[in-house]
Amino acid sequence: MTIESNSSKPPTPESIPEDDSQANDFDGAKTSENQLTPGTLAAQQALAAISSLQSPQNTAALQQARSSFSQSPKFQLTVKPRALLITVVAIALTFLGIILNNWIIGAIGTILALLLSLAILAPWLQYVINAWFTTQDRSVFVALLGLIVALIGTLKFSGLGDRLLIWGKRVNWEASGTLAEWFGALGQILIAIIAVYVAWRQYVISKDLTIQQNLLTVQQNIITQQQTIDSYFQGISDLVLDEEGLLEDWPQERAIAEGRTAAIFSSVDGSGKAKIIRFLSRSKLLTPLKRDRRLGRAILNGIGGYEEDRLEGVRVIDLGVMLAAADLSNTDLRWTDLSEANLVRANLSGCDLIKANLSRTILYDANLSGADLNGVRLFYGSPEKASPRSRNQPPDYQTGEFTGAVVENADFSNVQRMSESARQYCCAWGGEKTRGTIPGGCEGIPNQLGR
Question: Taking the complete model, does pTM exceed 0.90, yes or no?
């Protein structure tokens, strides 16, 4: 894109009336702010040329550059030649009065030189004050000056100063020690106060640095944990899938997969455990699948998935006791298959367990307070015939016998969206401690455990 030759030319300045040019002999900083120095003029011309490109990439840089020119103008003191001439004459009158020993000429020259010098330096002094002291600093200075004047006025006009003088005359200063000793003691006290303040500031700074370092450490741990989980996902996928992406796992591969899972569960937090459980569950690696009894391969169900076999199926990864006493509070476990897992003393408070399968899961002494149990499966069949799992009896998935979760001593306080069938089952097989925590109560439902 070309730039027009006249795009960077400054506009032609309008003619300034002669009366305006002689309106004030002392322009100061106010006049200098409206004038363009050669460097500023060249910079503004360059910026005008860049702006004609209308490039989105340099718009932000252009605005920042313009703001830097507009916000930090350089001070230039501009004085009319007539003012300088009058000042030189006043200085000459002062020296003439000194030479002639004439106080009238000397006084006139001194007053003129003082007034003219102050008039010339006033804009510069104002610029220095604005540049070196912020509005807050000036306010604090004026406030302190007003406080000092107020204290002096209080001592003067309230009579307190006279009382202090009378009291000071009555004090035997020779017996009380010399003034130097008093100032020495006061200096030591001030040094101790300053030392305490410095130590306190060091503590505050060290505390802030420690907090920032802890935040950085937490962020780094989160990144490291996510990288570890991603590596685990890739490793499990490569281990249990063949080249065509089908499950063809052997007993040793299943054992290695379970070993990897147990190891990573011990090195991640509750959120990481929930991610791993969701991955394994949605990948059908926690579900008992029907297999070819000779080849061990998972059998397809004919509708695009693998066929489940709750009674005799084999899981790729059997969680077993990996999650016993695990802290999974406030995590997302929706649509996960945790059937037959050992969750004894596990913390599931605040979990999202929508549509989760907890059949034959050991929830003994588990904490499910505040969890969302909408659509959760605790058993198969009807709540009237369903019963908890047994060590000796196989489950009957038609009637529901021995297919239920072990909910004895579990805490169901403030659970959300608990179905009526789940409430009946928990009241019947949870025991007295569990029955006391179920929302809605268990009135009219017999305690099948008897304890």
Answer: no
